[in-house]
Amino acid sequence: MKYRRFGNTELEVSAVTFGGWPMGGTQYGHTEDDLTIKAVKQAAELGITCFDTAAAYGLGRSEILMGKALQKQRNEIIIVTKGGLTWDPNKRRIFRDSSSQAIIEGCNSSLKRLNTDYIDLYLIHWPDPTTPFEETMNTLDKLRSEGKIRYIGVSNFMPSTMEDCLKHVDLTTNQVGYSLFERRVERDVKEFCEKHDVGIMAYGSLAHGMLAEKMNLKTQFVNWDWRSTKNVFGMPFFKPDYFEKNISTVDTLNALAQEHNVTVQNLAVSWLLNNQIVTTALIGFRTPSEVKKTISTMNFELDAELIEKVDKISEDAYKFNVAGEDISPAVGTWNPWDPKPSKFGSTSK
Known about the structure:
Blueprint: E1 3-5, E2 12-14, E3 16-19, H1 33-45, E4 50-52, H2 61-70, E5 78-83, E6 85-88, E7 93-96, H3 100-114, E8 119-124, H4 133-145, E9 149-155, H5 159-166, E10 173-177, H6 189-196, E11 199-203, H7 242-259, H8 264-273, E12 278-283, H9 288-296, H10 304-322
Parallel strand pairs: 3-4, 3-12, 4-5, 5-8, 8-9, 9-10, 10-11, 11-12
Antiparallel strand pairs: 1-2, 6-7
């Protein structure tokens, strides 16, 4: 395992982070709690030190499982969780709420579910256009001074919103979608983060399963899996024609990977980490065997010529997908990655 400086902190974090969205069990395909807990423990044993979750993943289920799995390693690992999304049981939807009261209550609830007395990095999950950033950031600073959180970050924030936040606190990270197929972050978010020393945590690093080499042209998703909507934060990865083309791109990457005795996952992660501002790449493991297979075959020292070839394939794939980007207004429009809430609640990452 390789380790990198975590944003503007002195912390070192593993180049791969265990992503906890699938652990929620409600939006990202089938999972088994026992296997998930074992997967988290396996990841820690193999050198992964960063574990990401959120209150919204399974309405707390992911945090509970993560807390159970990491009790014995608590002082050796970094726990990242997110708040600022509130579940309305009557409307059966998740809404953005970064008010002081919501953040304090949310943080306290996350601490209980994680069974810990501090959170290493606390993120605002999505920007809340109804609450002044000054109120949100000052509340996070108060939680930090109380020792409940160590560092402050955001997720899915654009440069203008990060700039507003930086007027009140320092930001360790911005967690955003970034992969071989998803490069919208390069429009202006990446440059802003580089300028202000805000590390990027790349979620969807395997294009939400596409680059895990487990999909084929017959792949379908159950109706409660958010990918069944075919809309990946405004990108058409799983829509007809796009899906077929993307699977073909994975085949091309696989041929290249075999030439160099590596895996497609290895190419995807190494390409991301070639960007120094990318602190860590999130992967949503489900089983111990997935963790072991991925980490044991990961080579973080791929040569520049190979990365350049991967980048060319990535450029072509991104241009094809971004041509189908959905930029129509969504509920609570705030940035171009804002998904529309589904009938089962927001698909917000």
